[in-house]
Specification:
Layout (H helix, E strand, L loop, with lengths): L3 E3 L2 E3 L9 H12 L3 H18 L4 H7 L5 H12 L3 H6 L1 H13 L2
Antiparallel strand pairs: 1-2
Helix pairs in contact: 3-4
């Protein structure tokens, strides 16, 4: 079924809403190329990146992003961006490289 378009926002066809969650997860992965879990993790980390850029502490950002500890957040951040939050913001070259790689994320 084609997506509905509402003010340039693409929404799934209403018939998809009556499907089991696993069916929606499979459909999401087919359409986007990534799992719902990976997408959610990337979305949280991108939001965390914005918070860190605005001056929030790693501890506060980790808590807001739903991580149990700052070290768990830093580990997840490093696995996605390739560097720790401190190194990301300390080195403009790293920031540029990561920004380019973000655009390449599925």
């Amino acid at each position: 079924m084609p997506p509905l378009i509402l003010n340039d926002l693409r929404l799934p066809h209403p018939a998809y809403c009556a499907r089991p969650a696993r069916t929606l997860e499979r459909r999401f992965a087919q359409e986007t190329g990534i799992t719902v879990g990976r997408w959610r993790r990337q979305a949280r980390l991108l939001d965390a990146l914005r918070q860190l850029a605005s001056g929030q502490t790693v501890k506060v950002v980790a808590q807001d992003a739903g991580y149990g500890s700052p070290s768990a957040f830093v580990s997840a951040f490093r696995s996605v961006f390739g560097v720790t939050p401190a190194r990301y913001f300390d080195n403009p070259q790293v920031t540029d490289e990561v920004a380019r790689s973000e655009r390449a994320l599925p």
